[in-house]
Design brief:
The complex is a heterodimer of chains A (112) and B (113).
Chain A lengths: L3 E4 L2 E5 L4 E7 L4 E9 L6 E6 L5 E4 L2 E6 L4 E6 L8 E9 L6 E2 L3 E6 L1
Parallel strand pairs in A: 2-11
Antiparallel strand pairs in A: 1-3, 3-8, 4-5, 4-9, 6-7, 7-8, 9-10, 9-11
Chain B lengths: L4 E3 L2 E4 L5 E6 L6 E7 L5 E8 L2 E4 L8 E4 L6 E5 L8 E8 L7 E2 L3 E5 L1
Parallel strand pairs in B: 2-11
Antiparallel strand pairs in B: 1-3, 3-8, 4-5, 4-9, 5-6, 7-8, 9-10, 9-11
Chain lengths: 112, 113
């Protein structure tokens, strides 16, 4: 049973464009939603995270939008750059739980 | 300030051999997590440990897999009698407190021939 569904599987964006990656979850007990960025051959690195008490969180060019009623959250990368080319994973965790449940990932390619 | 360290980075084993993967958490972190990443898949939780204790091993296969985090030294993920299906990237993460931000290591890529 896949608890966090991520789409699209791959995404190609032109430099300067907006990259949008979506995730949907099933477990209404989830209350922590981080996004990780992974470059080839590296471990995932925390990019930005949100809790359900806010609908949006912005850090630089990265924004998480959260829709609790729809059980969806998304990552927006503004002014996408070739250096943003990586695989992005959404994840979710239940309050007080250390067990992160990951989506399958989105491979982002930003063309110069 | 070193991050999470894992070794070896690449490990090749033949079917039936044992694989030992090591993880040294970030300085000051006493919580360790192991995840497995199969090709084209997201990471799957395996086990959560604190020093000398296994807290949650709900993601560990029932047989052949074990983990420990001794009082001194790194955390070890041990896979006995490896099979081809064990080929994957194994990531360790650490945190300073339970349910706090997890910081990942570079992973160990296990290949079973």
């Amino acid at each position: 049973q896949q608890q966090v569904k991520q789409s699209p599987q791959s995404l190609i964006v032109q430099k300067g464009g907006i990259s949008i990656i979506n995730c949907a979850y099933e477990n209404t007990a989830f209350d922590y939603f981080p996004w990780y960025q992974q470059f080839p051959g590296k471990g995932p690195a925390l990019l930005i995270a949100i809790r359900p008490d806010v609908s949006e969180k912005k850090e630089g060019r990265f924004t998480i939008s959260f829709n609790k009623s729809a059980k969806q959250f998304s990552l927006h990368i503004m002014d996408s750059q070739p250096g943003d080319s990586a695989t992005y994973f959404c994840a979710a965790a239940q309050g007080g739980s250390e067990k992160l449940v990951f989506g399958k990932g989105t491979k982002l390619t930003v063309n110069p | 300030n070193a991050g999470v360290m894992q070794n070896p980075r690449h490990l090749v084993r033949r079917r039936g051999q044992e694989a030992r993967l090591r993880c040294s958490p970030m300085k000051g972190h006493s919580h360790v997590y192991w995840y497995r990443q199969l090709p084209e898949e997201g990471l799957k939780f395996m086990v959560y440990l604190q020093k000398e204790n296994i807290i949650d091993e709900s993601g560990m296969p029932k047989e052949r897999f074990s983990a420990e985090f001794p009082k001194e030294g790194p955390s070890i993920l041990r896979i006995q009698q490896v099979v081809r299906g064990d080929s994957a990237a194994y990531f360790c993460a650490s945190s300073s407190a339970r349910a706090d931000t997890q910081y990942f290591g570079p992973g160990t890529r296990l290949t079973v021939l």
